[in-house]
Amino acid sequence: MSRRSGVLEFAILGLLRESPMHGYELRKRLNTSLGVFRAFSYGSLYPCLKTLVRQGWLAEEHSGPEEARAPLAGRRARIVYRLTAEGKEHFEELLAQTGPDSWEDEHFGVRFAFFGQTSRDVRMRVLEGRRTRLEERLAKMRASLARTREKLDAYTLELQRHGMESVEREVRWLNELIESEREGRDRAERADRADRADEGGTGDRTDPVNEGPPGDRGENSEKPGPPGPPGRSGPAGRSGRPRRSTRRRPSDGTGSTDNT
What we know:
mainly alpha; three-stranded antiparallel sheet; 54% helix; 8 helices; Arc Repressor Mutant, subunit A
């Protein structure tokens, strides 16, 4: 199988993993979602679909009873392609691959289109591999331009510079993506450590409702209040001493009074 047909196989399996589709809908998705496939026609798509069906990775289904009877009315039946369990397993194996093919121009765009279904570690390896490949290409372009600058006319020189700037922009873009992936990985690791710490400390925690003396555990035990001031809580008061009477007795003529 050629590299281009391998890329088409990967894209078909990835799109059908999202939902079953018929051929025309699948072709539209390839053209709109994956621009690299605009050059593909029905002549290349349907042979690939038939191959995937023979390998057991896809299954053909009619879209409905009316469509199944369409040939009797002179119309072509619409076939819906569905990913099988074996096809899903094969696609997951393809997703896990991080070899040089995944870094090349033709394959990288398709791999990147399915990064949402790819693990973070695989995404990192593919991005770093792509960056390494572009940095090598950029170094060769600079060396070639330095050797041939004097021999090139102005337009050819601008074309060379344009190519270098395109590669430099993609390298900067890849640097941003790699940094973002690393930050996401660090956040996930910190969150994982925090979860493990919470789980490990669960057994040492005490219920605040059951802490402290009985009066602090929500029991309905009443505590005596502070003693009131003397002479305000009954004849004897809280101090136990008798109250003094301040009633004045009649004078006996000597000008003295008796306080009991």
